[in-house]
Amino acid sequence: MPADKLHITIAGGDTVVEEGTTAGQLLLGADPSPIAAKVNGELRDLTYQLADCDRVEPVTIDSDDGLNILRHSTAHVMAQAVQDLFSEAKLGIGPPIENGFYYDFDVSAAFTPDDLKKIEQKMRQIVKQGQLFSRRPVTDADARAELAGEPYKLELIGLKGTIAGGPPDAGYVEAGYGDSGESVEVGGTELTIYDNLDPGTRQTCWKDLCRGPHLPSTKFIPAFKLMRSGGAYWRGNEQNPQLQRIYGTAWPTRDAQDEYLKLLEEAEKRDHRKLGAELDLFSFPTEIGSGLPVFHPKGGIIRKALEDYSRRRHEEAGYEFVYTPHITKSNLFETSGHLQWYAEGMYPPMEMEGAKYYPKPMNCPMHILIYASRGRSYRELPLRLFEFGTVYRYEKSGVVHGLTRARGFTQDDSHIFCTPEQLQEELASLLDFVVGLLRDYGLTEFEAELSTRPEKFVGEIADWDKAEAALKYALDKSGLPYVIAEGEGAFYAPKIDVHVRDAIGRRWQLSTLQVDLQMPVRFGLEYQAADGSRQRPYMIHRALFGSIERFFGILIEHFAGAFPPWLAPVQVVGIPISDAHVDYLENVATRLREHGIRAEVDSSDDRMQKKIRTAQRQKVPYMLLAGDDDVAAGAISFRYRNGEQKNGVPVVDAIAEITGTVASRAQV
Predict the structure, then answer these.
(1) Which of 214, 188, 177 is nearest to 68 (CA)?
(2) Is 415 a catalytic residue?
C-alpha cells in the first residue's frame, strides 16, 4: 500500500483513506451523526488524525460514552461562564456524573439562585456562539506556566496519572452502596489542555486542563440546566479548602431533559427523608450525630417485618444465625487488612486496658473467627453464617444522605464457606435466593454486573479465573440480564452486583455476591477433605439488602410510602361514624389483632371525613367504617387506600380478605 494511504477498519468492513484523515472526516455522513469516535477502544475527538490499521467506531450523543462527553463538555461551558462572571473564581474539577455533571470553584461567597440564573444565561450565549473544543498536548512546564493562576490545576499537574477527588469507596462493597462517583482521573503520561476557540477568529476564549474528549463545538449541546449548588471539600478531604460546587444536567434532546426533570419532581415527592418524617418512621437527632438514625415505633414495625421475613427465609435455606460484638481489638482488622485498606472510613479507636478497640466497619472478620474457632470437616460445608450485624463507617459529611448513606447501619450479612467443588452451584443457589427474596419485597426488575480482575490484583490468576467462571455460571443459570465490567472488580475479589429498578425507573445497586480470594489466606482457614488432607475453603460475601437502613429507604421511595399491607405499620384503621360505633369497631379490631393484623380505631373528636383524610395521609391500606346499619347487619363499609369503597361487607368476609392479603404478601 502506498505510504500516503491508510488501511482503516470501521463497522461494516475495511476502507482505505488518505494520510492525515481525521476520525470526523472518515465518519462524515454517518447516520446518526457521531460526536466523537472510539479508536482502537479509546475515546477520541473527531479531529483525531488516524493511523494505519486503526479500528474506528462512531460515538453518538445518546450512547453512554456520548452522554458523558456531552456532560463533560457542558461542564466546561459552565466553568467558562463562571469565570466570565466571577473573575476571581479558581477552577477545581468538573467531571460528568450520572445524569449530569458538576464543577467545583473556589470563590469568595457561596453561589445564590440568582447567580445560577446568570451563569445559565451566560452558558446559553456560549453555546449559541458555537465555540470549538480544541485539544493540544503540553509539557508539564508549559501547563504550569499557562495555568499559573489556577492553584488547584497546578496541584492536579503534580498528580498526573492518579485519581483526584475522594478515595474509591471500596469499603462499601459488601453494603451495596457503590462508589461515590466523586473521583476523576487527571490523565495519563501526557498532559493536554482544551481551548474553547471563537469559530470565526480561532482566538482562545477559555482553556482548561483536561484529557477529553469533547464535542466538536458548543453548538452540539442540545439541552442543559443548572440544578443546585453547595459546598464540597477539595478532593473530598475535609482537611482541604471547601469549594463551591455547581451541579447541572445535560441531555441529547429537550424532550429527554423534560422527562428527566419530571422524574426528579416525582423523586422529590418520594424522598424517603421527607416521607420518613411525614409518616413518623425515623429521624436523625442532632444530639446523636450525623448519619446515625433512630427508628420510631412505626418505622420499627416495618423494620421488624422486613427482618422477620428475611430470618424465616434464611432458616428455610439452611443458614445458621450468629451474633458478633460492635467493637474489637485493632489486631483483628490488621489481620483482615481493613486497617491497611479502609482506615480512613473507620471511626477512631478507643484506648482500653492497653489496647486499641475499633467500632467494626464490617462483620466478615468476626464470622471468619467463628469458622476458625474449631476444626472443620468437608461434611460441614457449605457453612452459611448469617447476621443482622450493625457496623459503623465514618462517611464524610458531604455524602451522608438519609438512610441510603448512613454512618451506622445494619447489614444482612452472610458469609458462606465452601469447597472449591461446591463454589459454582453454591453461587447459583445464592443468586436464586437473593432474587427470589427481593421479589417478595415487591421489586421485580433486575439487572446484574459481573466485575472481573483489575489490572492491579492480589492472588493467583488461576483462582481468579475459577471464581469469575463460577460467578458467570451463576448469572447464566439465573437468566438475569447482565453485563461484564472488565477490570472493575476489587483488587482482592471478583463479584456480582445485583441492581434493581424502582417504580419510577431509577436504578439502585443492592445485593452483592463476592468470592473473596484473600481472607481465607490471611486467616489461614482450613477444612479436612475427604482424603484427610487439609484444604483451604472458598469464602463468599453475600449482602442481600446491602443494609437494612438503605433497603428501607429504597422501599419507601419505591412504594412512595404506601407499603403493601403486609409491611404497613398500621394495616387497618376503624373509623366510626359517631361515638356510638366505637365499641363495635373496637371489637372488630380485636378480632383482627387475634389474626396478627395491626389494627387501630380512631376514636378522636375529629369528624369522620377528617379521620378518613388522616388515614389516607398515613397511607393506611384499609379503612373500616361503621354506622347504625353496619352494626345492625354485623357488617362494615370497606374503604381502600386508593379511595374505592365497598359497603355492607360482613365482618367475617372483611377479616378474611385482610388476613388473606397480608398472608400472601400481595403488592396492593
Answers:
(1) 214
(2) yes
Question: Angle at CA 233, nearest 5°, toward 231 and 238?
Answer: 125
CB 399 within 8 A of CB 180: yes
Q: How far apart are CA 542 and CA 497, in angstroms?
A: 10
CB atoms within 10 A of CB 337: 15
Strands 100-106 and 242-251: antiparallel
Catalytic residue among 270, 314, 393, 407: 393
635-639: long-range contacts, CB 8 A cutoff, minimum separation 24: 636/585, 636/588, 639/575, 639/612
According to the model, what pLDDT value does residue 445 have? 94
Q: What is the pLDDT of residue 171?
A: 28
Active site residue 522: no
Verify cis geometry, omega within 30 degrees of 0, for the bond prior to 213: yes
At 656 the three-state DSSP class reads helix
* 3 state DSSP class of 654: helix
Alpha-carbon span 184 to 205, nearest angstrom: 25
Q: Please list the ranges in the chain whose pLDDT falls under 50.
A: 1, 163-187
Choosing from 122, 360, 407, 541, the catalytic residue is 541
Residue range 438-455, pLDDT digits in tens: 999 999 999 999 999 998
* Active-site residue, from 298, 367, 396, 495: 495
Helices (H), 479-581: 519-522, 548-559
Report CA torsion sign: 603, 604, 607, 608. negative
Note if 364 is an active site residue: yes
Question: Could you give phi then psi for residue 510, rounded to 5 degrees?
Answer: -115, -85
- Please give the full DSSP string across 71-88, using - where no structure is assigned: HHHHHHHHHHHHHHH-TT
Query: What pLDDT is attached to residue 637?
Result: 94
Active-site choice (131, 411, 514, 571): 411
Catalytic residue among 45, 104, 413, 602: 413
Using an 8 Å Cβ cutoff, are 167 and 107 in contact? no
In the residue annotation, 393 being an active-site residue is answered as yes
Residues 6+ away with beta carbon under 8 Å from 504 = 263, 266, 267, 270
Catalytic residue among 207, 384, 415, 619: 415
Q: State yes or no: is 413 an active-site residue.
A: yes
Whole-number pLDDT of residue 161? 54
Specify the pairing of strand 242-251 against strand 538-543.
unpaired
- Are 160 and 140 spatial neighbours (Cβ–Cβ below 8 Å)? yes
- Choose the catalytic residue: 153, 364, 618, 630: 364
Q: Catalytic: 495? A: yes
CB 161 within 8 A of CB 187: yes
Where are the strands (E) in 93-219, listed by range? 96-97, 100-106, 132-138, 163-165, 183-185, 191-197, 204-209
Active site residue 502: no
Can you list the domains of the chain with their CATH numbers?
A: 5-59 (3.10.20.30), 64-263 (3.30.980.10), 274-324+363-558 (3.30.930.10), 572-664 (3.40.50.800)
